[in-house]
Amino acid sequence: TLSNSLKDAMKKLAGKTVIDRAAVDELVRDLQRALLSSDVNVKLVMQLSQSIKSRALDEDLPPGMNVREHVLRIVYQELVKLVGKEAEFSLRPQKILMAGLQGSGKTTTTGKLCRYFQRKGLKVGAIGADNFRPGAYAQLETLCKKINVPCYGDPQEKDAVKITRDGLAALKDVEVVIVDTAGRHALEDDLIEEITQINDLLKPDHRWLVIDAALGQAARDQAKRFHEAIGIDGVIVTKMDGTAKGGGAMSAVSETESGIVFIGNGETIEDLERFDANGFISRLLGMGDLKALVEKAEEAIKPEDVDVNAMLRGKFTLNDMYKQLEAVQKMGPLKQVLSMLPLGGMNVPSEALDGTADRMKKFRIIMDSMTPQELDDPSLINTSRMTRVAKGSGATVDEVRELIKYYKMMQKTLKGFRGNRMAMNKMMKQM
Ligand code: GDP
Ligand code: MG
């Protein structure tokens, strides 16, 4: 599935010791393969590849992020961009017109939407304006009966526009009216003509296009045609539970200049999910809530807190270490944060995370007994100085030693980070 191949690509990135140009190239190739085989449009895949490459190589590393996290964040943001923004709607009285080919899931989704608005406390009703497919009205009526929602239709009537008009009159006490329409087997002129007329009469607040996730590339033509006819302002992708090809339908949204409103992920009336691009991509990549992490990291680690540039030039003092620890502390329970970041977290030795708050208090007290020179250059601290610092701070010599050991560990981690940065610079020069 798309999710599996994306996860594999990200795992491969996580396993790399150095993230250089070659690693970014390889990642982009893996992403391309994954997206193309799930039927995302070639042009969109190429745009995404270009953006990821140039951003990964050109953008400055955000403070507090290593190269790996930086690349991960870009991949994530570009994928979110690919599936587009969520289409908005409000929970007010309104009319919604459903469009889409036969079998796409319009009637089922009309029932699901009735359920959705009903749960939000609105009075809902449906109109079955599909008189093309035999039994279409009965199918909608059955769904509506199940949830006790009024449903208007007339299987004998040949004129879908008349059904819509009569339905509006019959459902005048209803707050949200959803009109199910006919689909046909292929895009035909009389289908487009009919839905255009219904649209003119109904003057709906929303015109939502229902697309089967399994359609792949063909989804684009449909989206384009329906959009030209009635102006689609939201897309519902159905059957996301049953296919690896969802990419085509998802990216067809770009034809409509709208966004995805809902995702259908099952056959029951409850299987409808409000689309959320961030959550969707996070799940696709198998990474918990990445958006929360990215925001958290950005707000916790402000540039003024840590002089990253000085550290990258090779200067890393005890005070720097302390500030780093403080910044990390602000990110909240550390283990939780790291569990949200399976890739970046791997670099941090787990013993560095234990009892951090208590440890920091102790570190602060010990550091207060050091001279400015010692804080600036901890390599000055020999055994006799250690004894002096321990006495002055009421700590044991072992505790002072632990602080120095901790400092050295951080310094080593930072060296790896610096190595990546150098690889990064080298790679930029090659461009
Ligand atoms: P319409 O011709 O556009 O009205 O399509 P229908 O609503 O009749 O749906 C066609 C078939 O797709 C039916 O068998 C539905 O049960 C099925 N279906 C619709 N939405 C979903 C979905 O989200 N998941 C799955 N698995 N099946 C769906
Ligand atoms: Mg139908």
Can you give a write-up of this model?
By secondary structure, the chain is of the alpha/beta class. The chain is built from 19 helices and eight strands. It folds into three domains: 2-85 and 285-289, Four Helix Bundle (Hemerythrin (Met), subunit A) (Up-down Bundle), CATH 1.20.120.140; 94-275, P-loop containing nucleotide triphosphate hydrolases (Rossmann fold), CATH 3.40.50.300; 297-430, 434 Repressor (Amino-terminal Domain) (Orthogonal Bundle). An eight-stranded mixed β-sheet has the order 3-2-4-1-5-6-7-8, with helices on both faces. Helix 8 (189-202) packs across helix 9 (219-230), helix 9 (219-230) packs parallel to helix 10 (246-252) and helix 14 packs antiparallel against helix 16. The longest helix is centred in the last third of the chain and has 34 residues, at 397-430. The protein is elongated, with a radius of gyration of 29 Å. Residues 106-107, 130, 133, 136 line the site of magnesium ion. Its main location: cytoplasm. Keywords: Cytoplasm, GTP-binding, Hydrolase, Nucleotide-binding, Ribonucleoprotein, RNA-binding, Signal recognition particle.
What is the topology?
Elements: H1 2-15, H2 21-37, H3 42-58, H4 67-83, E1 94-99, H5 106-119, E2 124-129, H6 136-146, E3 151-152, H7 160-170, E4 176-181, H8 189-202, E5 206-212, H9 219-230, E6 234-238, H10 246-252, E7 260-264, E8 272-274, H11 277-285, H12 290-300, H13 308-312, H14 318-330, H15 334-339, H16 356-368, H17 372-376, H18 383-393, H19 397-430
Parallel strand pairs: 1-4, 1-5, 2-3, 2-4, 5-6, 6-7
Antiparallel strand pairs: 7-8
Helix pairs in contact: 1-2, 2-3, 3-4, 4-11, 5-6, 7-8, 8-9, 9-10, 14-16, 16-18, 18-19
Bound molecules: guanosine-5'-diphosphate (GDP) and magnesium ion (MG).
